[in-house]
Specification:
The chain is built from 10 helices and 9 strands. By secondary structure, it is α+β, with helices and mostly antiparallel strands.
Length: 275
């Protein structure tokens, strides 16, 4: 039976996203094994007794041209939907927030998403006008549903480094979120504030926060995110700095991959990238 990237991820890989294979995530490595014939043995954490059987199966499907160059987002969406398949729409309101409505004869959860709303229906998620979200946004939202969290935010803010199993993600956060934001908004604090407001960001005025810009986002009802931005100060020799903070309950609602997706999505929206 052909092995998909999800099969390899679920059955063979450690799911730690350690990066020792040279890829940012275990799922990315699995996708390269399937689509680009990357040797499975590059991952040092697969038990040897499991590798050989998988290699034989992979060699057969390579020869037959199966599973090559698959769309990883499609695989990830299928997996996320499977994770959330047992969720009852009526039970989601208490956990995720939003309100239950009847949409075209289906029980539907209307959920705030940044400065708009989405409809969560059995097996699919759409915008309120019926148009589709991107595949990765759907993966993110289905994973939020499946995570099973019910905690309310406490107002205790933490950086990514303060959560467990994030060592491999600290560099990704810096390279893919923090540094691009610094480069884009250095010397442009007002533009940052205006762009944040355009998709629901609220400016925070707090004497205890000494940042040049402090913005609170509520991408989802139970998942607030705070962005702090310090502009460069050439007189004192300080470069610009940015930090994303999450409520301490975020890991009850999102896995680490989803936290990273959300961080990159906020960066995209600040850049004016809506798709």
């Amino acid at each position: 039976m052909p092995l998909s990237a999800i099969d390899i991820y679920q059955k063979l890989l450690p799911k730690t996203n350690c990066g020792d294979c040279g890829y940012r995530t275990c799922l990315a490595f699995a996708s390269m094994v399937v689509s680009e014939k990357l040797p499975l043995k590059i991952c040092p954490y697969i038990p040897p007794d499991k590798i050989q059987d998988a290699v034989w199966e992979l060699e057969k499907q390579y020869a037959e041209g199966k599973w090559t160059r698959r769309d990883m987002s499609q695989d990830a969406l299928r997996w996320a939907k499977e994770r959330a398949a047992s969720m009852n729409i009526c039970d989601l309101q208490e956990r995720l927030g939003g309100k239950l409505i009847d949409s075209t004869g289906e029980q539907t959860l209307e959920l705030p998403y940044f400065n708009s709303f989405i409809y969560i229906k059995p097996g699919h998620i759409v915008k309120t006008d019926g148009s589709s979200l991107t595949r990765w946004e759907q993966v993110f939202l289905f994973n939020h549903m499946a995570q099973g969290g019910s905690s309310r935010p406490t107002g205790n803010w933490k950086g990514l480094v303060d959560f467990p199993n994030t060592v491999s993600k600290i560099k990704s956060m810096k390279n893919h979120v923090e540094e691009p934001l610094i480069q884009r908004f250095r010397g442009k604090v007002e533009e940052l504030k205006n762009n944040a407001a355009s998709f629901g960001g609220k400016l925070i005025s707090d004497a205890d926060i000494n940042a040049d810009a402090a913005v609170l986002f509520n991408p989802l009802p139970r998942i607030p995110v705070m962005l702090l931005f310090w502009d460069e100060n050439t007189d004192d020799g300080y470069d610009a700095e940015v930090k994303l903070l999450f409520d301490e309950t975020v890991i009850d609602h999102l896995d680490i991959e989803s936290i990273m997706f959300l961080s990159e999505r906020i960066k995209q929206l600040l850049f004016g990238e809506n798709t």
